[in-house]
Structures are given as C-alpha cells and as structure tokens.
Amino acid sequence: MNEQTSTLSNSSPVVPPSSPVQQAEGYTSIQAINDSVAASSAWVGLLRQEMGKSIIGQEHLIERLLVGLLTGGHILLEGLPGLAKTLAVKTLAMAIHTDFRRIQFTPDMLPADIIGTQIYNPRDTVFEVKQGPIFSSLILADEINRAPAKVQSAMLEAMQEKQVTIGDESFTLPELFLVLATQNPIEQEGTYPLPEAQVDRFMIKVVVDYPSITQERMILDAVDHTDSKIVVNPVIGPDDILASRKVVDTIYMDDKIKDYIVALVCATRDPKKFNLDLHDYIETGASPRATINLKAVARALAFLAGRGYVTPDDVKSAAMDVMRHRIRISYEAEAEAISSEDIIRKILDTVPVP
Fold this sequence. Notes:
The chain is α/β, with parallel strands linked by helices. The protein is 41% helix and 16% strand. The protein folds into two domains: 1-16 and 252-354, Orthogonal Bundle (Helicase, Ruva Protein, domain 3); 42-246, 3-Layer(aba) Sandwich (Rossmann fold), CATH 3.40.50.300. Strand 8 and strand 9 (169-172) form a beta hairpin.
C-alpha cells in the first residue's frame, strides 16, 4: 500500500455470520457472493496485464483506475509532468472496447469545444446540433485546471447529471461515462482553481508519485525498445464492466463497517466528538458524498481482492483518496504545514476500528 496505509492496524475482517445474509434479491450466502465475484472479475487480470505493457510500476494508480470503472466514479489525477498520468488513461482506453476522447484544456477554451453547439443548415433553414467530444464513454480531461469557469460549468453538468444541454435540448451521455482528469499541482500560470462543487464530484483524487529506483531502471531499459510499437489489445467491453458493477453492489458490508465509515467522515466535521484536537485545522469537513463514495470504493477494492465482503482495511485504504480533496484546511494548518492528508492519517489512527 501507499502512504495512506502505512499506519493501518491489522484489524480482523468484519465478515458476516455463516447464516444467509439478506440481499436485495432474496437470501444468499457469502460463498455465493464470492463465487459471483470470482466469475465476474476474470477480466481484471487481463486488463492489468495489458496496461503493464506500457505502464511500469504505478500499481496504486492502475488500481484506482479499475476502481473508477467498477464504480462509475470520476477520478482526478494529480502529479508532476512525466509520471504517466495521461499514458495510463490512454492505455486503459485502448484495453477496452469503447469510444475514447482526449480533451486538452486551455485558457481560451469555450464550452462548445467540449459539449458541442448548434450549427445553421442553410439548405433546410434549421439549426442542427453538432455533438462535442464529451459524448464518449471515457473522457481524458488533460490539465483540467487550465479551463475557465464557463467550461468547468459545462463539465459539472456532464459529471453530475450525465447529460449535456445544448440550446434548449438535453442529451443523455453513454451509460458507461467516466471522466479521468489530470492536473499539475505546482504550475500556477495559466491555471484556474477548480470550483469546490466540481472537485467534490470527483469520487477519488489520486496523487501520482515518482517511481521507485528499481522501476526507474526498468523504464530506462524499456526506452531501448521504442522502435517497436507497443500493442495494447482490448480485452473487455462496456457490458462486462456494467455487469461487474452490479456484482460490486451486492458485496456484503457489515453494519459495524457502515458505522465506521460514517464516523470517519463525521470526524472531519466535528473532531472534538472523537477526541481529536483538529478543530482549528479544518475549515470545512468532508461532504456526504465522501460517505457514499467510501462505501462504493471499499466495495470495489473488495471486488479487486476477490472477496464478497468488505473489511475495515478496505475502508482505510480508500479513505485517503476519497477524502483528501474534500477537506478544506484552515490558515492555521497552512501556517503549520499541516495538510489534509495529515489530518486524515490522524483520524484513521484515532477513530476506533470495528
């Protein structure tokens, strides 16, 4: 695991009793859910293998991209240039039988460049709608923080409502619709801070770090073979992904783990209630979307691990990526060089694990 799991305790999994567990469509056992997970996750290994042809290391990034596929949650990738953010998303798209568009955001961009516009047809004397690149299943929003507010508002509707309004008509986006956005954390010139409402629409924010020394050496050796183009084969289609999402929704989550998720999120809003001395460091806590997304991401991680039930470690592993962009720190925290990640680590260390 990455930094967010370095202080995790080896808590025992909270698993359901051997008696049948009530599910939405009747009664089934955990073994049945495990079998369903095993049957519907066969594509995961194939997809990892195809992505491994182009991406060396970055296991955490690849896992989070798979989580996005399994949950339908949008992902914000933040990292310095050259860390394979864009390459990872493009490779993921090549390994899936679906349409993909890359949108390079710039300060002079207009909403019509993304969603499309109405074009006058002189032959029929009518306006016709020309759809933009947003009408695709996978969207790479490259350097999303370079676009102005009007463009971000158009993206906000697409991300939240999964629809686009052009003129006086609304159009539904594909069922498999996923925005994978990138941004550079250090460059300020020609950038616009993303609105808080839009940031909250991203299910997870993944911070992409440098590769290890071993991985860097492997990258160095790999560039010797650039003459032969790497072929990434599509190994899965939208129907397979949508079917896996239904299985993810059936993964068992104990009531104690649900209470644990709520406690983690509420600790960002009222830290004193959980014996945390963090009140002066938090301007605003995580929104209810953090609670919903923690549940979804934890289930997806259980799915990727081949389990039909969620453990506390699944929740802890998801907590950093789900909440780091949803906590606004105060000036006192900035003055003392305390980040939202430091606050989340403190919460994970303090809130009792079931």
